[in-house]
Amino acid sequence: MRKFLLAVICSTSTFGSYPTLANSNTYVTVEESKITQAQQELPIISNQFVALQKQFLTELSETKTTESLAKVVNLFANKLWQGATVHLQKNKTYDDRALYWARLQLAKTLRTSAPFYRLNEQEQSKLMFNFELASRGNNDVSFNKNTDKKILITGFDPFFLHRNIGQSNPSGIAAMAFDGVVIEHNGVTAEIQTLMVPVRFADFDQGMIETMLTPHIKSGDVDMVSTISMGREDFDLERFPGLRRSAQAPGNLGVYTGATSENPLVPYLHSKPLNGPEFVEFSLPIEAMSKAKGQYKINDNANIASLEKGKFVANSLIELAKQTSVSGSGGGYLSNEISYRSILLRNQYNPKLPVGHIHTPRIKDWDKQVVSNIVEQIQLMLKHATTAL
User: Fold this and answer.
1) Same domain, 184 and 87
2) Residue 7 covered by a domain
3) With 80 as the cut, is the pLDDT of residue 283 above it?
């Protein structure tokens, strides 16, 4: 009988990070258990990379050593990311869902394969983490277009699939659409490289965001970093991200953190609570980015909530110095958290680097025209930003 990883209700303050079952690497996850439903309701989208999956299974079965297994996994994870982004850009599909479902199918194929079972638990964890990184573009970030500026952006997977199996995410579409693209504004050129981020608390607690972003922020090989996610009615540039989680919503593994607005919780970085101030401030060139006219307004959002004062509009970090964060400008979920973590890295390694978060207008399900309008306005924001970097 195939094993399934059940959703667990937990508090990160109790468990430290995502709770583990006995050798949970070999369990089919809650996300992966939705594959059958997606194949039934979204057959074309969910099976777009079925040939790659079959080839992956064949190559896996022929591996004899840990080293050869790692090479095969890395090869196919890279193929998936590159193939999916090229397909979207070439065909202008404005659809991120095929990549999402194909990644889950490859992950399930890997974790249920005989070579994977031969590894010890530590080796399995490392292999799955590396698979996730590669299939999300981490190995593909290379600024080689000889442009004036270099911009790194991140997008998110679709989420809340328990509500709607056909849900898409404009931020992920933007990441796929702009990977390797060169933009130009008023004679200034910029190359964009991109990454895709999971909607899973465990990956954040295990340091995936730091793994992805630290090399680029620390080395200074980028001129701007912008994390992006789906948000509210219009575009919001989130001025004051907060440290703590408070959203009572699950990640894609069905896990709740136990955080609430009355009991906001500090997330983890590896096995320790994330160490940083209660609030940080973005450094995006907001005046320039606000000139990107399109279907939606662009807001400089400074709304936050603290235990001491409740909800209010903050004017400065000084004003927030003695507040306990409940939600940052980006909320109390992973959108706020990726913004906080990226700015924390910026403050530590490259204090002059423009870093911040864009919340896109939210969409229901998927609508090509609506999504294309959102993506085009994001591109215009990035174009305007290039002349202010």
Assistant:
1) no
2) no
3) yes
Q: Tell me what the pLDDT averaged over the chain comes to.
A: 93
Same structural domain, 217 and 340: yes
The DSSP string of 152-220 is: EEEEE----TTT-TT---HHHHHHHHHTT-EEEETTEEEEEEEEEE-S-HHHHHTTHHHHHHHHHHHHT
In terms of domains, do 332 and 358 share one? yes
Give, as one character, the DSSP assignment of residue 29: P
Distance CA 281, CA 344 (A): 9
CA distances from 307 to 325, 327, 385 (A): 7, 9, 35
Instruction: Write out the residue range of the structural domain in which residue 210 sits.
Output: 145-386
Give the integer Cα–Cα distance in Å for 247 and 257. Answer: 9
- Tell whether 284 is covered by a domain: yes
Give the domain-ending residue among 120, 138, 156. 138
Q: Which residues pair with 193 in a beta bridge?
A: 152
Cα(16)–Cα(273) distance, rounded to whole angstroms? 8
Question: Mean pLDDT, to the nearest integer, of 64-85?
Answer: 98
Alpha helices in the chain (DSSP H): 12-15, 35-41, 43-46, 50-61, 66-91, 97-111, 114-117, 121-135, 170-178, 201-205, 208-219, 286-289, 334-349, 368-386
Query: Cα(60)–Cα(106) distance, rounded to whole angstroms?
Result: 11
Summarize pLDDT for 210-244 with one digit per residue, the tens.
999 999 999 989 999 999 999 999 999 999 999 99
